[in-house]
């Protein structure tokens, strides 16, 4: 990714979002705000992990999605975490962390692959919405990882836009190929950690705490990655 292109696109996207006109609150919605959210990264992470434990043990609260809350959120949003996750239909962040409307800013691409739109979206959450936590969520049996490993094993051409996914995930696959055990699992963990480290290293996100985690499809549990 060229740094000048990223800087231009990020600034353009954030500027456009910031310039969007704010909704004028009505008397009814101005009096009652949305439920309080965690305001620090440790509290935000604790809320995510507590919600995930509820999800994994079939004790989800299914947070309020009522018309009243929708009207409150129409005035302003105050999500407490950015989730950079995969598009996999089995890993919807709001369900995995048992959160509701207005709680999470979710950015999903296959294999959590970064591009300019993703970076600009994270920056909007961190700078404009003052979100204290960014969590990169990888998961087992990732299709993007499987496609990457298949390409490296066979050398077959990658069709169309899928080449971007393979190009971005391949470095993690190559670094972990010689490790004993499940190559796909090692690749997913290494790539998720790399995405976290890339976000951490970007000066646009220094005000946020950035972490990485793994979602287990079998247990429903999220575990933090080192």
Percentage of β-strand residues: 5-15%
Query: What overall geometry do the principal axes of the alpha carbons give?
Result: globular
How far apart are the first and last residues' alpha carbons, in Å?
A: 26 Å
Strand order of the biggest β-sheet: 2-1-3-4-5
Structural class comes to alpha/beta
What's the alpha carbon Rg, rounded to whole Å? Answer: 19 Å
The main β sheet shows up as: 5 strands, mixed
Helices, by number, come to 9
Mean pLDDT: 88
Query: Helices and strands, in N-to-C order?
Result: HHHHEHEHEHHHEE
Indicate the percent of residues in helices. 40-55%
Number of strands: 5
Kindly describe this structure.
With 226 residues, this protein is of the alpha/beta class. 48% of the residues lie in helices and 12% in strands. It is built from 9 helices and 5 strands. A 5-stranded mixed β-sheet has the order 2-1-3-4-5, sandwiched between helices. Helix 1 (3-18) crosses helix 6 and helix 8 (162-176) crosses helix 9 (183-201). The chain starts with a helix and ends with a strand. 33% of the residues are buried. Residues 1-33 have low confidence and may be disordered.
